[in-house]
Specification:
Elements: E1 13-22, E2 25-35, E3 40-44, H1 51-59, E4 66-71, E5 74-75, H2 81-85, E6 88-91, H3 103-113, H4 121-127, H5 143-154, E7 161-165, H6 173-188, E8 192-196, H7 200-203, E9 209-214, E10 217-222, H8 224-231, E11 235-241, H9 246-253, E12 260-264, E13 267-272, H10 277-284, E14 291-297, H11 301-307
Parallel strand pairs: 3-8, 3-9, 6-7, 7-8
Antiparallel strand pairs: 1-2, 1-4, 4-5, 9-10, 11-13, 11-14, 12-13
Helix pairs in contact: 4-5
């Protein structure tokens, strides 16, 4: 999570009232956000919501039709933007490279383009788990290995701002764990990270804040806790009951309005509003209710996404 000392510094990325039009198509409409230095910021939305367009604007690959984008206080289309871009790392959704080169040669090529010493490349390959594959031609790499190579090039030159577009595509569970472990280390070294993902369960506990886009507009923005509070979705409490305690459970909860209670054998499930949760738990944990185990499920990021009108989410 971001350091408290960074919260009062100027934004690493500031998007102010930005719109982008392609003829009559409004890809973005009055979008504003500010990403603090050292923050890990998530950008989510259904296909066609405008995420890719917003990425292009923040990277300086396109100009807004209205509004302004600043990176480290510098306008993306300004005279000083080139120097700022050298401090940026970027992993596109589809990392395309030269299959006839080895992994090390590919990384050295990108190092030359970024004016980074080639001597740093071997250590970067080792950091992303490709130290044993650096001498092999990329044509023999799996999709996950190619993604690791793309991540390594995004880390070239120790950038202080990193954009990652669907970065775990093709990675197995161990690869995803390793990726986020490295990403947290990089964040700890002071980097600001902006990440998109369709796998919402993967990022919900890892990002500091989120922005949801829908039809080119901001549908919601804030921490996961803030989004939960605004959406007011129910909490779900699962219990394992001792035999013969269904009637006692229902009697204990009868005075509370609006609960949804289901019992199947020893398994019980109670859905309640957040404001009721503490009182529901207090009643369920009374000795005469017979609860042997209790698990509380808060609304997931996927639940919130769908609640704000999102679609086409990859299930977890």
């Amino acid at each position: 999570m971001r350091n408290a000392e960074n919260t009062n510094k100027p934004a690493a990325v500031e998007v102010a009232g930005v719109s982008k039009w392609y003829g009559e198509v409004h890809a973005l409409d009055d979008v504003s956000l500010a990403v603090a230095p050292g923050e890990m910021f998530g950008l989510i939305g259904p296909n066609g919501a405008g995420k890719s367009t917003l990425f292009k604007l923040m990277l300086g690959l396109a100009e807004p039709s209205a509004g302004a984008v600043r990176v480290h206080g510098v306008p993306t289309g300004g005279a000083d933007a080139r120097a700022v871009r050298r401090r940026i790392g970027y992993l596109p959704e589809s990392f395309v490279t030269y299959d006839n080169l080895s992994g090390l040669e590919v990384l050295q090529l990108f190092a030359d383009l970024k004016r980074v010493p080639r001597s740093t490349c071997a250590a970067l390959l080792a950091r992303v788990g490709l130290d044993q594959a650096g001498g092999r031609r990329v044509r023999g790499y799996s999709k996950g290995m190619r993604q690791r190579l793309g991540f390594a090039q995004a880390l070239l030159g120790q950038p202080d701002l990193i954009f990652l577009d669907e970065p775990t595509n093709g990675l197995d569970p161990q690869g995803i764990h390793d990726f986020y472990q490295i990403l947290r280390q990089v964040q700890g070294e002071g980097a600001t990270i902006i990440i998109t993902s369709h796998i919402l369960a993967e990022i919900q506990e890892r990002v500091d804040r989120l922005l949801m886009l829908r039809n080119g507009r901001v549908a919601a923005q804030g921490t996961l806790a803030q989004l939960r509070a605004r959406q007011v979705l129910p909490s779900h409490i699962e219990l394992t009951l001792a035999p013969g305690h269904e009637a006692a459970l229902r009697a204990a909860l009868a005075p509370l309005d609006g609960l949804r209670i289901s019992v199947a054998g020893s398994a019980a499930r109670v859905a309640c509003l957040p404001a009721q949760k503490v009182e529901v738990l207090r009643r369920l944990l009374a000795p005469d209710c017979g609860a042997r185990d209790v698990v509380v499920h808060e609304p997931s990021l996927e639940d919130l996404f769908l609640g704000y009108g999102g679609r086409h989410v990859q299930p977890h």
